Known about the structure:
Layout: E1 15-18, E2 23-31, E3 34-39, H1 45-51, H2 54-57, E4 64-66, E5 71-74, E6 79-81
Protein name: PRC-barrel domain-containing protein
Pfam family, one: PRC
Domain PRC-barrel: 12-81
Amino acid sequence: MDSIPPIDTEDEGKPVYDTDGTRVGIVTHVAGTEVAVDPDPRLTDTVAAKLGWSFMLDGSDDSYPISLTSIESVEDDRIVVGGKGS
């Protein structure tokens, strides 16, 4: 990825999808370079592992900080995140 898409507090509440179109959570907090996502409780272990969200595999339902570099795009109606290698 060449640049990090702009994200700010107006993006709080947007759903978060992976690049395959699976809804993985919702943005709960944006502050500077920090973005927190509340994982979708229906998120499968396979998708969680692909995203590098190992905390989900332990049954945690806490909000999770994501790296700005994992954000593929910020759209009007969603945020798209890539895998752990993004």
